[in-house]
Amino acid ABC transporter permease (Pseudomonas savastanoi pv. glycinea), 186 residues
Amino acid sequence: CFCCYAIARMGDLQPQAALFFRGTPLFRGTPLLVQLFVIYYGLPEMGIQLEPLSAALIGFSLNMAAYACEILRAAISSVERGQWEAAASIGMTRWQTMRRAILPQAARTALPPLGNSFISLVKDTALAATIQVPELFRQAQLITARTFEIFTMYLAAALIYWILATALSHLQNKLEARVNRHDLET
């Protein structure tokens, strides 16, 4: 989705992209917590009732998409203009150029910030507790209320988030090494 938007913003589809994605600056310019509250508590005033998990998924998805499309747009823009010209000179269509020449190069640039955004998103899921989603932090809160083991429960939650972030970071590093393996061979 955000890859299509990033491509649309760069080419002849800018007006159409603007129609469908006016929300990008909005979602990049407001705190995720506020977005979750507007979606979960605000939309019911307009007749749109959502379950907590659905509201959280929509909020996290729109927020991540806003950042991801800008990361991809910047990565695509970073590919030298000569690459486009070289592809055109051998008869590639715009789509072939994007798929075979531009996106593979842009992926190398986009992967680190996309990975970091995803890791941040995983940690940001703790915000879903504010709209009653029974995620990790919310469960720690509920157990703490029952057992009064504040330090133990929140430390356990922090440890689980740390393990997840570390595992995702390791996975990101392996993926980056795989994408960049051709650079190392030359």
Summary: The two ends are 33 Å apart (CA to CA). The domain at 2-185 is CATH 1.10.3720.10 (MetI-like fold).
